[in-house]
Queue: 4 jobs
Job 1
Amino acid sequence: MSIRRTRPGRPRLVPPTTTSPPREQILHAAAQLFVTKGFAGTSTREIADAVGIRQASLYYHFTSKDEILAELLERSVRPTVDQVERIEQLAAPESPETALYALALVDVRTLAEAPDNIGLLATHPDVTSSEAFDAFRGIRAELADAYGRIARTAAPGVATAAEPGHLGDMLMHLVEVTTSLRGSGVPIHDATAAAIASTCLRACGIPESRIASAAASAATLLDDLPKNPGHH
Amino acid sequence: MSIRRTRPGRPRLVPPTTTSPPREQILHAAAQLFVTKGFAGTSTREIADAVGIRQASLYYHFTSKDEILAELLERSVRPTVDQVERIEQLAAPESPETALYALALVDVRTLAEAPDNIGLLATHPDVTSSEAFDAFRGIRAELADAYGRIARTAAPGVATAAEPGHLGDMLMHLVEVTTSLRGSGVPIHDATAAAIASTCLRACGIPESRIASAAASAATLLDDLPKNPGHH
């Protein structure tokens, strides 16, 4: 079944690279179908057809469609969450502003590189209402907590005014503009990522002069971080 | 068909009020089903069943499932966009900070009151990829433009640093945290709305002292606005 609803700037169904491992080919084809047709509107049969394998072979790699989406969704947050501890060790508490800038930057990059802009599905009702994605929601909550924790250290007064429990959610949402821009066909350049990270610091009431120095320190800090296997 | 996947804090299928106009009953039942089961996973038959009418009667009010979702989505942005002109007339250009605060506050309220948290579906692939929702995407782009235009007037220096074209998108995304909080069962109090609006101003580099006065002026301004028919 071919996909006719593609639009400019939307992911397109391209022939899968037959040299990638089958598991990766399945994930890639599924991501394209989920983002184009919706999760409920996609069958495992269609995913198998897109890869050019039989449905039985697909079930050798994944027990269900839920499991495929769960893995894809994890790839939109796991690479960021995996860096949180190192970022906090290297930057906070001496320079929580650098930590916040670095976290936002890593998060923008993860979302910009996640397969087929799968981050778009994070707030999808299928995902927020099914227990199959409890693990993903747990990782996402961990990320919101990290934003909140670092932001509270960076700007204690403002964090209280903006309700500690929600500041992390607000910053995470702000950074998720990445998926929306990407979905509209806007390329996520380094300047775009820097603008989003700077806006996060501004949202915490951090003045311009300190944002500039946080940006410089974050660049150094990220060079020191072990390369994330999810990035290329 | 009953819905078994409801979770704490999620919209629940409740018997429709038989005193509301049928069109409203259809919209309400559809919203609950779309948010719980996804758009692709819901049939017009199920919507008709939930209302207790025949499918033929549903088609008397709406020509398609797309048309139902389009109207629901419009209700998550139209009440805000309808206030933009008045907000800008009353506040900008003398006080663009007040205009931005007021816009964010009206937007939080619209999202907090939209039927069954339907704002959650705004970035849904079904919506972003189908031409049936071109009109909705147009109104949403209008809202992002308004955020950007007002923010540029409120903080011209910062707006340039944060790329003029994207500042509006970032602020709109930040405010959409409302749907995410609401989806997690967090009540959207006046204090929550104020925290989100203040964070928008901070994100534009506006200092605390001026945020406090913008909040006070915005309260007066909103009292002067004609009551939005979509609000209760």
Job 2
Amino acid sequence: MTPDEFRRHGRQAIDWIADYLERIEQFPVLSQVKPGEIRAKLPPKPPVEGEPFEAILRDLDDIVLPGITHWQSPNFFAFFPANNSGPSILGDLVCAGLGVQGMLWATSPACTEVETHVLDWMADLLGLPAQFKSDATGGGVIQDTASSATLCAIVAARERATSGRSNQSGVRSPLVAYASTQAHSSVEKGVRVAGLGSENLRFIDVDDRYAMRPDRLADAIAQDRAAGRIPAIVCATVGTTSSTAIDPVPEIGRICREQGIWLHVDAALAGTAAICPEFRHLHAGLELADSYCVNPHKWMFTNFDCDCFYVADRAPLIRALSVLPEYLRNRASESGAVIDYRDWHVPLGRRFRALKLWFVIRWFGVAGLQQKIRQHVAWAQEFAGWVAADPRFELAASVPLNLVCFRLREGDEANQRLLDRLNGSGQVYLSHTRLDGKFTLRFCVGQTNTTRGHVVRAWEQIRAG
Amino acid sequence: MTPDEFRRHGRQAIDWIADYLERIEQFPVLSQVKPGEIRAKLPPKPPVEGEPFEAILRDLDDIVLPGITHWQSPNFFAFFPANNSGPSILGDLVCAGLGVQGMLWATSPACTEVETHVLDWMADLLGLPAQFKSDATGGGVIQDTASSATLCAIVAARERATSGRSNQSGVRSPLVAYASTQAHSSVEKGVRVAGLGSENLRFIDVDDRYAMRPDRLADAIAQDRAAGRIPAIVCATVGTTSSTAIDPVPEIGRICREQGIWLHVDAALAGTAAICPEFRHLHAGLELADSYCVNPHKWMFTNFDCDCFYVADRAPLIRALSVLPEYLRNRASESGAVIDYRDWHVPLGRRFRALKLWFVIRWFGVAGLQQKIRQHVAWAQEFAGWVAADPRFELAASVPLNLVCFRLREGDEANQRLLDRLNGSGQVYLSHTRLDGKFTLRFCVGQTNTTRGHVVRAWEQIRAG
């Protein structure tokens, strides 16, 4: 494709996306296709000769769109959002166009330095403690997801807990990880991948707000120590997936400090709220954490994938992950004056993902980001008020931010039926969880283009059953 | 950003990329900035109010471009390529615009089904054995990089070698991995992350073509068994990073089968060549492999990140990585009729990366891809001939594909000086390795827009010293 062809087809692709976003509310939010329906429309063999770009674009409409669940629909209230925005899409486009691979500082200094800089901006925006910034002992890096960040935290914690022995000789003694019963499934996945084993993950009880009980954590640690096991890491959650519960990081952090245990704080969704001073209390106690992550690809209008992972001390992370073959040696790395982010995560290669985050922060400005976050929280609170006022429904958990957990009082079957009706209608998309064993609907207000009107209409549909 | 603003700014971004690609040869291929130079141009704090898109675009020229090492320059001959192409950029753009998150089939069936289908296409294109296709016991998935694919292979092998015990109880006994001395650094990184420990990675000697010696592999396995250790995985390489050496997969595979050891084959760069029937011999013995990966983001004109990872049996991979919390349960998954790719890699969330690969295969067609690969190989062979004919130079390794390893006969210092001169000139970018302890230049022909003229001029500059 020549540059001139790229100009022409690029405009077609841009227009296609703009048209898509304009008509997005015409599609069922949750794709209604049956398994295999999309594949059946694809030819069994790839074409021998190239096809015109117009044929490819046409298949987006004919084949792809029916199989899309529209995460960018303002009627998407399921899971946590994975939203995008114009500046983010265009930042990602420039990333693809430049096509740099920033495994080393030298292989594109701007890829590394813009990332370091924007992650320092983020640390200030979110009120993170000074040690997480690049001019201190720590620093931030963009990873794909919080799952990968959690894995890296576990590996660095393992390295520190065994003074490097597990990296050299393998995991040999029982290293224990702790998280609440409400923690994300990625903690167990990471514990497994890192060779600790699921049996060495303790699920700590929660209080009536679904937040980790520090007393139970302390008990579990004491039991493991008494049995000769090595407590290695606590994964606290600020904003759990089920109900945005906030673990008490200050108390958990004090225990971790006393015990010399790595504290990782997963604020994948909720961390973004700390852009607003009135929500910065979410980050209380973070000065006691060894690592932290937040996903701008969830609630900060930056398209997937973009997880910001911070460490208070970069040394154990780099020691755990750095392997330096001859073919990557270069004068800049040897000078010690640069960051080579390849040592901060599992992949060697890396995209210029900082561009999209940089574009988003500059396009919206801090005030623009704050306004959107405040609106989402306010509408979720308003929605929670409607639920509370309707005698058929009950709130299933407190609503600290933008997620409302609620249910019909009638019981699990009625709630499953309600969810099936709503999602089958194509008008809205909600997801579910279980709280205290009860089937519970989750209504998360966080899509970039959701307005109060969308929230109002969603509630009308929920009540209409 | 409204859809209309997106149309306008989208065109600006498309034009900026097209202009960039037109003038790319005006920039020094290797960025010439000093550490900190890019950051010094960035404001210490993010803007409170949003900025116009034009200001952001302007900074791409003023701040970012001087810090770019131009991977898309046709004069880029370093490392292995990470090339892009028009259809790939636009496929990635549509991915960002749709903004779907395909963790589950239900969260965008097209994201899963197009991926499965295109990975089956790839299996046919590359002549992979039938067990790697989705209608058999295995299947393919897109991961970010070969490093992550290797980690997943190690984790699945660990699961199989211990009948699931390491996943449950952690790594407790010495599990051993094997790779040649020339294998990629990601094997050691993966061995560490998975908790096996660097000491349990055996670097097997190579022959005079830098390919793994099967007799030495068999010896090492026998020694480990005798010592009570558990051989778990062999990572063979088809196209090593230093010199594109081809490990003898048929012989290695027979040993692995006899011994019940997982065989992973890393063909990150070289696998793409198998699109051409005359190079399909690269894949001899793959029917004995348990897993395999190739990176279209290297030599297949598909922008980073896009690694195709295949397993012959998906069961141990999924058993190792699947954790199912309530909030991800859904009727489609429970039907058993769909693939949920979240269980095929470490991250939970996932982009619609299959789009760019689908766009590339359709735009070029099989014949178009073959033509480009054949040209690159032919020009590299021609370059190798010029080196061989010049008495000042010597070839440092055989040239099976598109990478020429060569050096001045004068010794390491002269070669380091030559490399510094070339890369400092900004006219070309080469990287280096060590072979038999000697500093060796690597010249890889694989960038999308490289022509024979670029190769000719590069040789003129190399000779001119």
Job 3
Amino acid sequence: MSTSELSWSGWGDPAQATPLPEAITELLRSGLGVDRPTPVPDSIDQVTLTPIRLGTAPATACTEIVGAEHARSDHDARVRHARGKSTLDLLALRAGRPIAAPDLILTPASHAEVLAILGVCTEHRVAVVPFGGGTSVVGGLVPDSDGFAGWVAIDLRRLDALVSLDEQSRLATLGPGLRGPAAETLLAQRGYTIGHFPQSFEYATLGGFAAARSSGQSSAGYGRFDDLVMGLQVATPAGTLVLGRAPKSAAGPDLRQLMLGSEGSLGVITELTLRIRPAPPHRVYDGWRLPDFDRGLAVVRALIQDGPVPTVLRLSDEAETALGLARPERLGSGGDGGCLAIVGFEGTEADVAVTRTAASRVLEAAGGRPVAEAGEGWVHGRFAGPYLRDALLDAGALVETLETVTFWRSVRGLYDAVTTAVRDDLTAQGTPPVILCHVSHVYPAGASLYFTIACAQLPQPSEQWLRAKHAATAAILAAGGSITHHHGVGRDHREGLAQEIGELGMRVLAGIKATVDPAGILNPGILITPQSSLNLR
Amino acid sequence: MSTSELSWSGWGDPAQATPLPEAITELLRSGLGVDRPTPVPDSIDQVTLTPIRLGTAPATACTEIVGAEHARSDHDARVRHARGKSTLDLLALRAGRPIAAPDLILTPASHAEVLAILGVCTEHRVAVVPFGGGTSVVGGLVPDSDGFAGWVAIDLRRLDALVSLDEQSRLATLGPGLRGPAAETLLAQRGYTIGHFPQSFEYATLGGFAAARSSGQSSAGYGRFDDLVMGLQVATPAGTLVLGRAPKSAAGPDLRQLMLGSEGSLGVITELTLRIRPAPPHRVYDGWRLPDFDRGLAVVRALIQDGPVPTVLRLSDEAETALGLARPERLGSGGDGGCLAIVGFEGTEADVAVTRTAASRVLEAAGGRPVAEAGEGWVHGRFAGPYLRDALLDAGALVETLETVTFWRSVRGLYDAVTTAVRDDLTAQGTPPVILCHVSHVYPAGASLYFTIACAQLPQPSEQWLRAKHAATAAILAAGGSITHHHGVGRDHREGLAQEIGELGMRVLAGIKATVDPAGILNPGILITPQSSLNLR
């Protein structure tokens, strides 16, 4: 597990990157026609940025709030805060054209400092981007800053305290700037865990998990991150919101649920109170082969609806299983027929034994057969996916993921619709893809689908991907799915959001923004369409 | 179980009312000094109403939408839609002074008709109160209609269909006007249950459960009603919202959570998609005596945090246990020392056996002892509480309930603070009360407290109660609790809401209302303070 600075040009810690297995390189060449490695910038200095626009007055005022040592506008800091980690972001950094970047990066140390920064930026009409781990894959860090007097990033890394721990209520109050591993380490010292392990775990922050409604790989057992948030302190240009006096209440609409998923467009989360659990003394992860995807879907649905409910429950389709993507240690080795399910159990040894035995019975009755070592292989490689994408991009492939969620009745139709739409589009572009899918999160009423798509890069790979992505989004909406299960809206899904929640839903969001952020400085262009551009009646 | 029309002057079906046990009458006399029965109006005709104000133009337009047979302005209909079922409501009906009532009661048959009514009422600036079962206990049906051109109630009883049932996703789409028993009957015919059984179950409606964030007696097993809502169709003056494409999504803030708890002030719920479960073939309810309230709190917390989690989990304090309020069949019989817990299990016979055995072990280890027949006594009498209140009011007692919720660490302090505040206030008024309490709903992070308060009536009982209630609310807020766990905000908790979510939180609500209800016609004065009256910066 890495705790290094996130690579500016790709994922994670460059020291952890591993070369592609020869089998994959061969597959890329023979299967997808990928044979031209793409150039990667050697150094961060090769990235060109658009000029700094922020005037002296707001820059000075902001710098005074945090202190000069916590205000940066050097090239390195600007590049590292310019983009997230979508394939489009990585391609933009490789394309050689100037990219937009924040003018000033501030690292405040308190809620009061965040409020003060918002005050200065409101006064001077400066766009503000709250910045956690920088791991957005939906363009959530790139504001529409035209028309603003500059772009300031608020990097929350110094808000990294375990503020308090309430063992009786099993609650921890934590700073939003804590990355996943740091938060878990603080809690492990007291015997607790949050239990939230998304693929971005090593670099993403608690504030980002909340702002983007993250979902972790153990969501069947621990819940999504939005299920874990019991309290929020939020700094907005209009003042402070302190939300959450109880797990649940009937005191009107749940305003926590407005801030969860607000992606920095309604406020800056400066403190979170989270459910915690005793760290499980025992964990075991099993692999099961199901005969096919339909029977796999039926059995994971049976487990989540009728129990016993495992802590981890995932199901790869035939293509993903064949490629071994669920087991990075065996990547490209082939040979696994059917569909691989990962079924994990955490808890006391006795509880794990009981639940595992009962779940195994359900899986066996559905035609499942144990796959030795597959579960442990998955858990050891489960944060490796983004490294693989970097290597594939380097090799000249276009690789990206997309995800959706719907009710069970529509899951199979959604799977077929997305697969068909993406395959048809990329094939029409002359680059027939490999499309892999897994069910990553299950609920009694429905499930998410997570697609990985790879094909040969065209000379304009961003345009190539945007076209395929547009086809996927249209297919998702037509099949009844949500545009995103856990990646968020950002810039990339904004059009889809309008179709999903309707014009009135968008106006509701714009109305909320007008209250908490009247100057519209927070993450402009992310999630919310400004009220002025909506067709107001 | 009754399915009659709700009594206009009290709770439920008058035929089901039972006289007070002699022991209770004696207790009222000797313990509280209650010895003067209060006069009850014999007939609905004795109630006087303020005159009809609605003009001919809006009345005619509204009537044309639904048809003359579904538009009433007769005395009987007006009285039955004037008030909810709080003690303040019942006292107002008994006081003999003219009370405000809707001018026109409409029973639309479709979403389109509701939208059309909202259009007419917006045009003519007529206050609109969405009306489900009429069981509000927080003044949620009494709008601030001054300044409006009248008051129209939209009674949703004709929106009572089981629209669709999706067995694969375990979802049912239902009309908001269905009362609890009717909805359960429709689903039972297909083998399913919603599992939502609040004390108001027999008369309250699905739309009301959602609009007021109801919580049922089986919430430990089935969740609160807001946990069960997967989709909503809402008619607003600004148009229709259709929300919920999946159990969970990262497509921005969860707008379902805005409409849940909106109490008719943001829109009229015209369709709900709810989680359903297979009807449990086996149910068993046990009674356990715990040595005292603190040890009782510790064991219900242990069960909800570490399992096994029962379907029903309640705990009465010493006073409520002594009075036998948890066991209406033994009311006033005394003799039960300690604190009575009700622990219920529903599911397959095998699952119930396993969970019950394991829970019993936890209860025994905490010093619990089984109380024969107490569980079955509770389940048979669980909808009887409101009948008892009517009888107590008739006998001359002032009786009301109030509830709150907080995190576990604050539960005991909240209990003490509310008890002390209410006792001190009513004692200072010369009417020392009996105060009973139970934990009705538990979560891993916290629990609700439900208080029943009884004392002798003063000549101005409404003022007497309002003073005590104000003291209770202040104590709740100071002790960190929420002003309501499941009764809602209505009129009665509006001041407390402003303290709970802050001035900015109130402005957020007002901003949302300005978007969906620009004329402010929906339930004016309920939940949301109009934006114009807030101190806008």
Job 4
Amino acid sequence: MKMGLIVQKFGGTSVADVEKIQNVANRVAEEKENGNDVVVVVSAMGKTTDHLVDMAQQISTSPSKREMDMLLTTGEQVTISLLALALQQKGYDAISYTGWQAGMVTEPVHGNARILDIKTERIKKDLAEGRIVVVAGFQGLTEEGEITTLGRGGSDTTAVALAAALDADKCDIYTDVTGVYTTDPRYVKGARKLLGISYDEMLELANLGAGVLHPRAVEFAKNYGVTLEVRSSMEVERGTLIEEEISMEQNLIVRGIAFEDQITRVSIIGLDNSIASLPTIFTTLANHHINVDIIIQSGTGTDKANISFSIKSSDLAETLEVLEENKGLLNYEHIESETGLSKVSIVGAGMISNPGVAAKMFEVLAGEGIQVKMVSTSEIKVSTVVSDEQMVSAVEALHDAFELAKVAVSA
Amino acid sequence: MKMGLIVQKFGGTSVADVEKIQNVANRVAEEKENGNDVVVVVSAMGKTTDHLVDMAQQISTSPSKREMDMLLTTGEQVTISLLALALQQKGYDAISYTGWQAGMVTEPVHGNARILDIKTERIKKDLAEGRIVVVAGFQGLTEEGEITTLGRGGSDTTAVALAAALDADKCDIYTDVTGVYTTDPRYVKGARKLLGISYDEMLELANLGAGVLHPRAVEFAKNYGVTLEVRSSMEVERGTLIEEEISMEQNLIVRGIAFEDQITRVSIIGLDNSIASLPTIFTTLANHHINVDIIIQSGTGTDKANISFSIKSSDLAETLEVLEENKGLLNYEHIESETGLSKVSIVGAGMISNPGVAAKMFEVLAGEGIQVKMVSTSEIKVSTVVSDEQMVSAVEALHDAFELAKVAVSA
């Protein structure tokens, strides 16, 4: 590893107690001893956020987002000071900064603000003086001096944004897994850790629930060309590099297989085939915070259309209620729904130049006697909806068919 | 009560849990319903600070004051947000501010900073718009953007300083006692709550360990003419007013009796009678954070002097060690010490114009067969050191002799 500037990010489980914070200090110290400048971004300790939210909910039936930001940002502030103390105890010169002290300027939105700017003078001065800088993730300040939070995956975003603003050589995301896998190793024995993956592939996998890294942070990294590495905070092995040009495993067409159970298909039958119907349905659902994933429209060209879409099964009751309430507006005949479904997706940038990948997928599934109930494709992804019971065998068959268990020869 | 601006301060025991924070919201709402503008200053919840300190001590043998300030200021930030939520839940427009958001500018010292300035624009704007403003006590920001704390009694100081800066009509200090008493009611049955007391008297009582209000806050109030009221957060009765011109009980010469056990007298015998000896001794002790209270010098005029001083008994071992280490420098013959002592003090602004108060005190104590071992006087206070076993009977005898149990006729 050449000497440079590394941004490290440690999530809540990596700093859950005093002992784990001391372990993080060791990881930071190693990087410093390697001759690198280090900026560390941390989240709130383990269950801290839950405890704070619990108190707020005891007090308020609908807590204001502004006061929740005020409350929750104390979590990371505790971690940064304890980590700075742990580093100082090991003899390192370390200093902690809240989001606003680190110059993190956000838009004036509470609970889910976007970063507008990072004023890095203070951090740059500390780095130049040899200091390790510890920054609170997830938080920022508006130009009016209001404390904001960045929403889900906020600490990942803080780390990537800082890496971009400081022109860091690398941003290491430490987590409780050792990297990004070809598929979930808890379900598929042959799952293999990837050495490299492109931003777009990671985005598809992250959006598909691979869960190690927030899509917003990946997008930020892609836009600013920040090289990410997802790695374990407990083990020293190499993780998975995420960058534009991946130098290894180029010959793989499919990079990974993502899957998710508890999916429900909802079909609206006999819908008035007007231009307004489609936006009306999905705007109405979005207003009720119901996330719709795959959407399939059939029967265009006639005066009645059928629309099918997939949702999380936990949203079914509310979805049916919303559709029922708006029956007059939407003007449909009836609703059908099917629960007990799963989504299985193959992801890989190589698909773009390899036609027939989707066809091969369907063939493999058919060979296993698995019925495909819905399909959705993007340039680097094919998603299928199958029954819950067939999810794991679908993943295993695809993992074999696309030879993901094989280690590719490095370029 | 005329309409105006009230600053209320609630300490850690008053906001120890969710239920108590809701109770504080009720007290704040009452004041608002009375037609007043209200600014509320709160401390960290109950045991929060202890918990944070405990984690820091697990990590660091000598935690840096800067990081401790970073850590501890999260405590009040949690309370302000929860109190703002509780007020909003009751239908009030409330907003919380950290110390730095409230414009609290301090000197660049960690752990014990003094307030330099308060930029009140933001709070004034909120008050003008009818908002209840909730401010984190104990904390501020340096001009360089560093988070600082105000040290012991810091939240009292925040409240008084805000009251001064906002030109508030009154600053109410809510605590777990109902006011300032003529002496400690846990020891003396006849102890009576005072309706009023002057700043100087309160200062002497506070310094003597009456403990309800930090001396620094009293001094600040005196310098800026802020009327204080010490009152209970749990009961609705009137508390004790602290102001320059006290309108009631003027005819009392002695206003209160303070006392403190676990005192030790240390005597340095046969000290070289040079000009340098006295400063050398007390500078050396101060450098070791040993607080010296009463100091008596005898034997001046000869070439050898004796110095006696009182300390807390818990500081005895270190005091003896420091004196032994510096024996060569101080050039004394030997050290004597007497433990098991108490300090009993009478306080009252009326003493200034009533000579013979000290004489009466000694007479009362002699009448009870109590030997006085050390004496110290100021314009409004006489302190005596007696044996531990005689402390309570000394206080009772003085409380009777100076007729403190009697309610004075209002002026």
